[in-house]
Specification:
- By secondary structure, the protein is mainly alpha-helical.
- It has two domains: about 100 residues, no CATH class; about 80 residues, no CATH class.
- About 70% of the residues lie in helices and about 0% in strands.
- The chain has ten helices and no strands.
- α1 packs across α3 and α5 runs antiparallel to α7.
- It is elongated and about 65 Å long.
Length: about 190
Amino acid sequence: MFKTVPSFVDIVVKATETNVRENEVADVVEELERKGCPKRELLYLLGMCENRGVGNSFGMTGFDPERLQTQLRRIRRAAKKIETINGADVPQRWGGTEFGKFLEFAQEKNGKPSAITEFLRLPAMLKEYVSLVEHAAKYLGGKSDFYLNIAKAVLVHFVRQRMGQYHHGKVARLLSVMLGPEYSQPNQLV
């Protein structure tokens, strides 16, 4: 993340740093930093511990289950229409619609495909998107604690690796910024 999308990391770090200051635990970050814990990485990992409270498909997608299925069917129908426009219904190459021929020609030109050829892949990408949303709503909705616990474990491991020992009290104070003031060292140890 730090190398591939540093701008995203910076957004998370900035928001987390604001939360840390507002919740008056900046002293913990400064102390850990002085003892060898890189501040940017620490704030990013802490930011990933935000409990988004996804408990159902509505929380995850903004649609109730029935409306979500309606929207996904609409996307599938759109993918089918795009396939038809692209000429995918015709079994032989170069025999589809004129637009499909244009896209296939753009794909073949000079051995280097044109950017417009991405429209040939659009139906498959839409179908993959629908499958991903369905999978997420079915298997991830309601299981956000699983991912939160992974994020917390990564944070604990990072601090231990950098500091050479566990700092459950300090980590719990930091996590209370993201998880609420009732979060404490006993919660962290559990």
